[in-house]
Amino acid sequence: MATIDHEDGRAIAQKVERFVRDIVVPYETDSRRDDHGPLDSLVHEIRARAREAGVLTPHIRPDGSHLSHRATARVLRASGLSPLGPLACNTNAPDEGNMFLLGKVATPEQKQQFLDPMVAGEGRSCFLMTEPAADGGTGSDPSMMQTRAELQGDEWVVNGRKAFATGFDGAKFAILMAKTEREDGTPSATMFLVPLPHPALQQERLISTIDSSMPGGHAVVKVENLRLSASAILGAAHEGFAYAQIRLAPARLTHCMRWLGAATRANEIATEYAVRRQAFGKALIDHEGVGFMLADNLIDLKQCELMIDWCADALDAGEKAITESSMAKVAVSETLFRVADRCVQVMGGTGVSHDTIVEQVFREIRAFRIYDGPTQVHKWSLAKKIKREALARS
Fold first, then answer.
1. Considering only CA atoms, which of 55, 71, 47, 198 is closest in space to residue 124?
2. CATH top-level class for 241-393?
3. Helices 69-79 + 2-19 axis angle, to 10
4. Ranges of the chain whose pLDDT falls below 70
5. Where is the Acyl-CoA dehydrogenase/oxidase N-terminal domain (predicted)?
6. Which 8-state DSSP code applies to residue 113?
7. Mind listing the pLDDT tens digit for each residue in 7-44?
8. Which long-range contacts (CB under 8 A, 24 or more apart) does 111-117 make?
9. Which of 179, 280, 284, 350 is least surrounded by Cβ atoms within 10 Å, i.e. has the fewest?
10. Is the separation of the CB atoms in 254 and 97 below 8 Å?
11. Residue 280: how many CB atoms within 10 A of its CB?
12. H/E element holding 379?
């Protein structure tokens, strides 16, 4: 079965790659975008092209089941060959991670209302967990969550503020995470599904950030007297932290998959530039300093591919893969940033211009080193695990 899945993944990835290179890449110069990302009119158009080409949501089979993580790695890497590719193919964050979580824990009714339209590419979603630092809210430390949901009679009443709500502006629904208390007073968290727009969720502002590939941008959202019935709870009450782990481990990895595709494309552009551009009587690539940078890129891209496959295999084996996903996220984000940096350097002035996507890939991967957990937080978590295991052996 795994072999068949891998073969399916290769065939789907090849189809996605042809679509991205032939159809999506020409849209990279389309003016329908703002400082935060492509406008929905552009997303709708390229998504319609993907539906027509049979590559919309290609990592989910018609019966609703997902490809293996290893097969998904090939497909998402192919979609990532353009910054617009994941949006066109419906493999973009946060939607891809939200689809995965809904598929795991949503009720049949919730899947029909929220998941099915998203799989069909009929709307965007957002994930509301991070909170403003000025409020002392949660970032990498979920125990700092300030947004609270209190049970009042038959309703949950939610109040708080969220930040870096990617894609909130224009999303069809949100997965909202809030602090709750069990009957014995033990602190916990619960996830809720909230249709958007909703009068109790008001966008305060859009945060200007270094990246610019997310429609709707990254919003600060005020949640005021949001009243929800028990049917709005995603999965079970008080299990939000556990569900976050279900979502985050694969989501960290799929980020790696998409950005591996983007860095691969940036390296292709830099290589073509180095072969064609002349300086001091010969092609740039024939200068050792440039040639060695491109050689390092080739090595680093292969190492990232192997790291992703290793983590994907752990997930496919049924492991939680929290440690593996942390290691992969650190290694791949840091390595791909070096790849993107070298691409900019090889191309000189052209590399920092908007003439190619190289400068955008550089910016996006710089942000990736923070999103879904900064490198230092993951290393700190790994160090704690190393200490526990060392003490257990002594």
1. 47
2. mainly alpha
3. 10
4. 1-4, 6
5. 7-122
6. I
7. 778 999 999 999 999 999 999 999 999 999 999 999 99
8. 113/193, 114/172, 114/173, 114/193, 117/172
9. 280
10. yes
11. 7
12. helix 375-393
